[in-house]
C-alpha cells in the first residue's frame, strides 16, 4: 500500500515525540536486525531508527534495504534518522493505523 501525502503528514506528526529505538552501526544491515525491527514495528506501528556516525551505510541504503526485504514502509528520512510504519498484525495494537486509514 502506498501512503498519501496526508497519511505521511499524520505519521510524521505522531512521530514527533518518538525517540529512536533501533540504530544501525558499523555491523551494518542484516536479516537478524531487520527481524528485530519488524517485531517492534508490528507492535508499535511507528518506529524511528538512527544511523550512527560509524555506520558504513547511508539513509538511502537503509531505506532501500528495508523496503526491498520487508513490508515495512519508510515514511521519512531526516538526516541520519529513518521513520518506519507498518500496520500492526494484531487489532489491539492498531492505534495509529486507524487514524492513517481514515484519511
Automatic annotation (TrEMBL):
Q: In its keyword annotation, does this UniProt entry include rRNA-binding?
A: no
SMART domains tied to this protein: CRS1_YhbY (SM01103)
InterPro entries under this entry?
Answer: RNA-binding_CRM, RNA-binding_domain, RNA-binding_YhbY, YhbY-like_sf
Q: Which residues form a coiled coil?
A: none
Keywords from UniProt, A to Z, are:
RNA-binding
Q: Name one Pfam family in it.
A: CRS1_YhbY
CRM domain boundaries: 1-97
Q: Does the keyword Nucleus apply?
A: no
Q: Which NCBIfam families match?
A: RNA_bind_YhbY
Recorded hits in PANTHER family, A to Z, give: RNA-BINDING PROTEIN YHBY
Q: What is this protein called?
A: Ribosome assembly RNA-binding protein YhbY
Q: Provide the species name.
A: Fructilactobacillus myrtifloralis
**Lineage of this protein's species?**
Bacteria, Bacillati, Bacillota, Bacilli, Lactobacillales
The gene is: yhbY
